[in-house]
């Protein structure tokens, strides 16, 4: 019996606190014009004191379960992709599991920075294909604001907090039925870790550390790697790039989104963009954008949706889904 997986519900949650570029300019040497021109970002959501990654993840997960029409008791597995866990251990996923009232199944965190959701979705897909799970809650959640150096204008303007989630369910496809998650593609290159990293960690100096980035080099690799993995996903499924109905990219920077779309020959109308309102929410970025496009009606049944991301590591990947 060959199982495949499909996304049956999406959800998201953002902190209610919004920080605009104008507000940032009061404390950082920057301007609204400078930020918008270089990033496309107008505002970001920032978690309040006591508002944790698990709290954001739980709300996004609840919303995804509601959209899917199932309850936590139907879940076999919870995966939380995050770079900003509540604790070094236990995992944020086990906290979410408890908040959902689950006393069964399994839960774990996955860390691939901004690519985390794609990695987690691939993991859920493979659990289902292996027959080890039927319903999986996949969440990307971050409070990135807590690892930002708020005196470094090159990084602090880029990031925000939030969470997005999907429910992935097993199904038995009909003969030659090409729906659900068609394929996932994951990559990494640890030689490039110095392009985006934190200068701390439990295993090195007992500090959380702050985000450090070499923006120009990162931009170059992002455009090249993301275009390459989109080609890989298309070729693996015998499709042309113009078969893609929606590109749901990691929301890092509007210039990266524009450059990637141009390299792929995709028009702006086929790219889901939320970076202007959410900024870069790392592992939460793709599911937040996905939920936005599902709920506003852009993504429809039968359409081809390509999600892709690149993050520190460097890590990058893509998932191709027939909705």
Would you spell out the secondary-structure blueprint of this structure?
Elements: E1 4-13, E2 18-20, H1 21-24, H2 32-39, E3 43-45, H3 53-68, E4 77-81, H4 92-99, E5 106-110, H5 116-129, E6 135-143, H6 153-156, E7 161-171, E8 180-188, E9 196-198, E10 211-213, H7 215-236, E11 246-249, H8 254-264, H9 275-278, H10 285-295, E12 304-311, E13 315-322
Parallel strand pairs: 4-5, 4-6, 11-12
Antiparallel strand pairs: 1-7, 2-3, 6-7, 8-13, 9-10, 12-13
Helix pairs in contact: 3-4, 7-8
Can you offer a commentary on this structure?
With 323 residues, this protein is of the alpha/beta class. The protein folds into 2 domains: 4-171, Peroxisomal Thiolase, Chain A, domain 1; 180-322, Thiolase/Chalcone synthase (Peroxisomal Thiolase, Chain A, domain 1). The chain contains 10 helices and 13 strands. The strands form 4 sheets. The chain has a 5-stranded mixed β-sheet, with helices on both faces. The protein has a 4-stranded mixed β-sheet with strand order 8-13-12-11, with helices on both faces. α3 (53-68) crosses α4 and α7 runs parallel beside α8 (254-264). The relative contact order is 0.19. The mean pLDDT is 96.
The CATH topology of the largest domain is given as Peroxisomal Thiolase, Chain A, domain 1
Biggest sheet overview:
5 strands, mixed
Shape assignment: globular
Straight-line distance between termini: 22 Å
The overall pLDDT average reads 96
CATH class of the largest domain: Alpha Beta
How many beta-strand elements? 13
Residue stretches low in confidence (pLDDT < 50, at least 5 long) are: none
Percentage of β-strand residues: 25-35%
CATH architecture of the largest domain: 3-Layer(aba) Sandwich
Measured as a percent range, the helix fraction is 25-40%
Order of helices and strands: EEHHEHEHEHEHEEEEHEHHHEE
Rg over C-alpha atoms, rounded to the nearest angstrom: 18 Å
Domain module tally: 2
- Provide the CATH superfamily of the largest domain: Thiolase/Chalcone synthase
Strand order, largest beta sheet: 1-7-6-4-5
């Amino acid at each position: 019996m060959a199982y495949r997986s499909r996304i049956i519900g999406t959800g998201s949650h953002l902190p209610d606190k919004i920080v605009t570029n104008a507000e940032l300019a009061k404390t950082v040497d920057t301007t609204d014009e400078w930020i918008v021109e270089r990033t496309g970002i107008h505002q970001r959501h920032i978690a309040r004191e006591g508002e944790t990654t698990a709290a954001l993840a739980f709300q996004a997960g609840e919303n995804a379960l509601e959209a899917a029409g199932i309850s936590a008791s139907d879940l076999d597995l919870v995966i939380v992709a995050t770079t900003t866990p509540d604790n070094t251990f236990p995992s944020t996923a086990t906290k979410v599991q408890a908040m959902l009232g689950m006393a069964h199944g399994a839960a774990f965190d996955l860390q691939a920075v901004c690519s985390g959701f794609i990695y987690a979705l691939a993991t859920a897909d493979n659990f289902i294909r292996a027959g080890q799970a039927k319903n999986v809650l996949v969440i990307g959640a971050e409070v990135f604001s807590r690892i930002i150096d708020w005196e470094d204008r090159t990084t602090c303007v880029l990031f925000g907090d939030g969470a997005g989630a999907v429910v992935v369910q097993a199904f038995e496809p009909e003969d030659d039925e090409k729906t659900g998650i068609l394929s996932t593609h994951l990559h990494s290159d640890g030689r490039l870790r110095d392009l985006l990293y934190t200068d701390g960690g439990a295993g090195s100096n007992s500090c959380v550390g702050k985000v450090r980035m070499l923006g120009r080099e990162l931009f170059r690799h992002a455009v090249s790697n993301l275009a390459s993995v989109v080609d890989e996903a298309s070729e693996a499924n015998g499709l042309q790039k113009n078969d893609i109905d929606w590109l749901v990219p990691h929301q890092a920077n509007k210039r990266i989104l524009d450059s990637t779309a141009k390299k792929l020959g995709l028009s702006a109308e086929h790219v889901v963009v939320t970076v202007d309102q959410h900024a870069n929410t790392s592992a939460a970025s793709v599911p937040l954008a996905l939920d936005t496009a599902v709920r506003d009606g852009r993504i429809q049944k039968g359409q081809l949706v390509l999600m892709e991301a690149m993050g520190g590591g460097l890590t990058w990947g893509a998932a191709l889904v027939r909705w």
